Amino acid sequence: MIQLLAQNHSAMTHLPIASAILCAIAAVVGLFIYKRELTWAWAILSIVAFVTVLPTMFTGIAAAKGRLNEDGKPYIQSGILVADLPANTRIFRHQLLGISGAVVAAMLAFLGIGQLRGRTPNKFLVVLLTLVLVLLWGIGGHLGGMELWGEDTFPGFH
To answer: Of 18, 58, 71, 147, which has the fewest beta carbons less than 10 angstroms from its beta carbon?
Structure first.
């Protein structure tokens, strides 16, 4: 079962990242154009981003547990994060950025639920959080992709 989860991590990363990007676009456009649909869009997309990142994190933990570094030792030292060693730099940063993004996504989802219930959060705070989320998951996703598909790991490049 854990292997099935690990194999699906890269596929599951796309929905939270896409939701975050669309959420940021809706929030930024909402600064200049007032439409109720734009506020609904960022609110719903922020909730979607948070809900879909939970299984993504679960599959990512499964993927990291099954990987070995150059010495043949498991990446996971203890808990859910890989050991902070030079050989694990990219995957460690990938995990930290992903988890940090999940915390930001939780804050955005909280604001999104408030928006849908009639409260009006500060538009600039929403835009700031959406842009931070896109940066965290964008950079983290790139590092994770390089760990899986980079020249030193993808056999097609050899």
So the answer is: 71
